[in-house]
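Consider the following assembly input.
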Amino acid sequence: MPSIAVVPDAKLSPEAKTVRRRRKDARPSELTSAALDLFVERGFSATRLDDVAARAGVSKGTLYLYFDSKEALFKAVIEEGIVPTLAAGEQRLAEHSGTSMALLRELLVGWWQQIGGTRLAGVPKLIISESRNFPEVAQYYHDNVIVRGRALLRAALQRGVASGEFRPLDAETAIDVIIAPLLMLAIWRFSLCFCAQERDPQTYLETHFDLLANGLRALESTA
Amino acid sequence: MPSIAVVPDAKLSPEAKTVRRRRKDARPSELTSAALDLFVERGFSATRLDDVAARAGVSKGTLYLYFDSKEALFKAVIEEGIVPTLAAGEQRLAEHSGTSMALLRELLVGWWQQIGGTRLAGVPKLIISESRNFPEVAQYYHDNVIVRGRALLRAALQRGVASGEFRPLDAETAIDVIIAPLLMLAIWRFSLCFCAQERDPQTYLETHFDLLANGLRALESTA
Amino acid sequence: MPSIAVVPDAKLSPEAKTVRRRRKDARPSELTSAALDLFVERGFSATRLDDVAARAGVSKGTLYLYFDSKEALFKAVIEEGIVPTLAAGEQRLAEHSGTSMALLRELLVGWWQQIGGTRLAGVPKLIISESRNFPEVAQYYHDNVIVRGRALLRAALQRGVASGEFRPLDAETAIDVIIAPLLMLAIWRFSLCFCAQERDPQTYLETHFDLLANGLRALESTA
Amino acid sequence: MPSIAVVPDAKLSPEAKTVRRRRKDARPSELTSAALDLFVERGFSATRLDDVAARAGVSKGTLYLYFDSKEALFKAVIEEGIVPTLAAGEQRLAEHSGTSMALLRELLVGWWQQIGGTRLAGVPKLIISESRNFPEVAQYYHDNVIVRGRALLRAALQRGVASGEFRPLDAETAIDVIIAPLLMLAIWRFSLCFCAQERDPQTYLETHFDLLANGLRALESTA
DNA sequence: AATGAATGAGCCTTCATTCAT
DNA sequence: GATGAATGAAGGCTCATTCAT
């Protein structure tokens, strides 16, 4: 599982030339990366900005050169860590040409590789925990992650129903049922994991797919 | 034990001789009830004890007559609100005599009626959000809610597999896959609900059961 | 050293007849006795009235039936525990007929037996610690304990100087020098005792007397 | 190290370039100085950190930039105010070449000049009053002040006994008897002084030395 | 750009005192 | 007389945010 490696680098502006310039441009990512580590470990409110600054190797005041407030830093963490993966999913959808079940599987495995299996997996827990108290962040997450993510799955499901591969179903609920176990798996790792037994993600995903395949498949195909 | 339900009238009943005593007995429930409201709305850490006290109509100091600390109040909320429902589920399991799918459905519907559809649905979100920072509460919840709850579902699944009603499956993962959508539904209502569209629980549960029925059913029974 | 036994009983009103009556009259002494224990152990401010009440076996409210405030209880502790010993000393002085050094010794040994060697030894520490913040108690202690106590020693010293047994000296300072080691011995037992080595009071008093005898004695008597 | 002395001008000196830096360096002493004033006046527990901060002209939070807790501030007051004087005494001892009585006198006069006659005289009272409830501070004081201070006097006494200048005596008790009047004099100034008559330290010390000289002197030397 | 000292509002917890029963 | 539930002011400590350097 190499997925715990740092992710944000992918977003580095490409025109960086000198080392100094590179450093200056990299600053925000270094800060959001440090923030992500601490946010997912302790929660947003429970994380002190002193600790974020210390982990990033800067002084506390420097944070305020790049982010207006703690909440803005939170938003930036999502913007930089999660949002780019949605574009990747949308491209996958556009280019896909196999069965709908294969598409579905590909989307979910992609989620696991880019989010569920990395430290970004802590973000859903963060959103769940803090959204009530930070509505601006919640709104941003809703508009830029949830809506777009569900659109991907909805497209895959509707394609399968239209082709007769899946039996007819309520798409919105089906989406919930499909993603809930994955989200819970991710959430679990950042909450009660320490006193619950460890899950094997591979087995978990396989079992989930297996149940899904049978649950979604049109009845005549099981005869 | 419906004691965590709203108890607003106890304060006014004039027909009691030993008003003082009745009050003393009712206090803990009044306090945990107020605490539950605020905890699920704002999170445990973000809730101020002043507000809990104010909502219960007492002064801040009174809380400490009944609970040693804020964390003890948290534990009491779980103890009084959630733990009793486990006993109800265990009784259901012992008395059941229908199909395993019916038992499973009964357990899940029971959960919805006693927890998922009530204010208590906020507790799982609470635990997820705060367990890292309050290990004692987390341990208590794990031992008294998670372990016992999973044991119920495990028994139902194993019964179905043994009778040939369900096809063989990895019980632990199946439990996760079964409860995850329900938990997420509950969690959702206390986090991003305000910016996401409302779910209809009835439809949701039915779709979930439907997928489950097909996913779990042994193949020969669908032929 | 039987001196740790309860002291206040000596002050019980003698007309008590029935058990009920005895109990009622004894209440204040039971309360001051419990208070003394805790005051000398933890200090006045650091002692909670709950604990005083608990140790006396009554409820917290009961304290306020007998004492107007915590400070009034403090004063009563002194009034009941210390003040009566001054009368004893004054009687000793009046009746004495030996050498002045013997009188001095008798007064100091009497102090040790009635105060220094009992739990009342904690009172000087209490006064030193708290007098600044409780001036009324301080004034009471000054007027009723310090002034009368010093008068006793002053009389003994002046008698010795007048008879030529002691050499001429500044009485006030001599009093200080004489009582300081005794007070410190008492104070010590209620402050740093736990990390300092234990003193043997017997040796201590003897050494002190020895130094005193040589220090006070008129020069011609040492020739 | 006179750093615990009043430092009011540091705040105003305009001739410094790095005002910030000088301020940072001076802060701890400003804070311990303010703390000492209030601690000896009201006692440690009864002193509010708000007041310490106000007296030092800073906000409450600033205290926590320099000291981890109220108790750490207590310890720093001792560390900065008292401990350095022990080193001075040890040097005095090492360099002394007169009679043992002169050495003893020098040590005691030194104590008076550096502690007994200054604000620091309140520290012994503080320790006596609060040590029971703050064992860590008590231990620190014991190890770094009491043990070292007694060692000084013990050396002086043993030197005098060895040379035949003093008669044989129990050193530990003699130390107690010697320092008790001085400690009591210091303690008095911070407890009952306001209702007791003022002592003249000069007379007091002289009388004490006089009694001591006679009490300690070997008998043959008085013949 | 970067620093880090300083701020001050806020929260949990304690406890002397009151008062209805 | 006796109780003990209730109060509310107060204090230690935290931490996001500011700003002079």
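Residues 53 and 59 of chain D are 6 Å apart (CA to CA). Ask yourself how this observation constrains the way the partners meet.
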